[in-house]
Write a structure and sequence with these properties.
single chain, 202 residues, alpha/beta, 2-enoyl-CoA Hydratase, Chain A, domain 1, 9-stranded mixed sheet, 6 helices, 26% helix
Length: 202
């Protein structure tokens, strides 16, 4: 479940894990009901929404996006690891979108709504049909995000090879992330997997 850091001047919401209920781990669940309740409780204070999610339930995602849209205060979405599928349009609903230099943004076909001229909508439809993955530079160039943040190291990545199998065009350099708790795994590629975080070996 997401957590909130509520400080005097602003709040930070960590939207990490599954959008909606996660059958395997309640700690990974981010339901719209709880999100909207907590967000409304911040009463217009500026909010940073930090996202690291492969997506989940489409309608839960719409409800979370709607909660962000109607929030009276300033909202900034930070794509920390990945904003895929339902998590992608949650990010787009914020007033400003910032993406880490190593992060990924992915859109694909799902029920949605959009506005724009025929050419703009055709371009988006084509990208969704093809399941398009964007680097921070690509997302910035297309106007999907407002800012890229340079990051020296990859501390955590939300790319689970088991879950990634459901996608058609996942990036070849996807880093495995486990949702298991208190586990340690080591790869031959120079990474150490500790719990659900991936660390690069020096």
């Amino acid at each position: 479940m997401f957590r909130i850091k509520n400080e005097a001047e602003k709040a930070t919401v960590y939207l990490y894990g599954t959008i909606g209920s996660d059958f395997w781990s309640s700690e990974e669940s981010n339901t719209a009901k709880n999100f909207a309740k907590e967000l409304d409780g911040l009463k217009g204070k500026p909010v940073d929404i930090r996202i690291d999610s492969l997506g989940g339930d489409v309608y839960e995602g719409f409800a979370i996006a709607s909660a962000i849209q109607r929030y009276k205060g300033e909202t900034t979405a930070h794509i920390d690891g990945i904003a895929a599928s339902a998590a992608s349009y949650i990010a787009m609903m914020a007033d400003k979108v910032v993406m880490s230099s190593f992060a990924q943004l992915m859109i694909h076909d799902a029920w949605t709504y959009a506005q724009g001229n025929a050419q703009e909508l055709a371009d988006v439809k084509k990208a969704m049909d093809e399941e398009t993955w964007y680097t921070a530079d690509e997302a910035l160039e297309l106007g999907l995000v407002d800012e890229k943040v340079a990051t020296e190291k990859r501390v955590a990545d939300a790319l689970d090879r088991t879950l990634m199998g459901r996608f058609k065009h996942a990036p070849a350099d996807a880093i495995e992330k486990s949702h298991a708790v208190d586990t340690v795994a080591r790869s031959e590629e120079g990474f150490v997997l500790l719990g659900n975080h991936v660390y690069r070996k020096e």
